[in-house]
Amino acid sequence: MYGTKRKERLEDGRVKGAILLAHLDWARQNIGSDAVELIAERIPGELSPQLTEGVLASQWIPFSLLIETDRAIAALCGKTQSATFRLLGRHSAKLNLTTTYRAFLRTDIEKFLKHEALQRKQFVDFGEATVEKKEDRHFAITISRTRTFSPVFCESAVGYYEAACELLGARDVIVRHTACLCRGEDTCVFDIVWSK
Fold this sequence. Notes:
Blueprint: E1 14-16, H1 17-30, H2 35-42, H3 48-52, E2 60-62, H4 63-77, H5 81-96, H6 109-118, E3 128-135, E4 138-144, H7 151-167, E5 171-179, E6 188-195
Antiparallel strand pairs: 1-2, 3-4, 4-6, 5-6
Helix pairs in contact: 1-4, 1-5, 2-4, 4-5, 5-7
């Protein structure tokens, strides 16, 4: 999946530091206590100081810093890129939704997904999200009107949605990324199904 060049656009977008901090937490647990220093050596020079000087959870950071950090983590941990990016997304959901954003989990999955779509601008400053109920335990999240995208972020989102639904009690969660801006399509669509 990542062997061929996929279209991405890293410029202009920003994400909240909480996402990066969760990914760095996973890296420390799986790479070692010196993970941040090892990652900083692998990312573009202009981004390294932002990583090593520290990031606040509420701070807006460049989207490119998150993506380059995730790529460095994947290179360092010895797993496939796809698996690593999904694990980072899963860890972000587990860490952030059980601490800072735990109030988001005081609901059912449908309300959670709709709330996530409405609150998107609190975490990323690009794209709009809509949620469509397909049938019982089957929803689609569509990301549109975005100038910023990366297959790294999309793969991480798959893991995030899987873990978030599991935290809300869903079993056998399957998230399919059925359309992608990175493949030249007009939107990204995440199709989510589960059993209970």
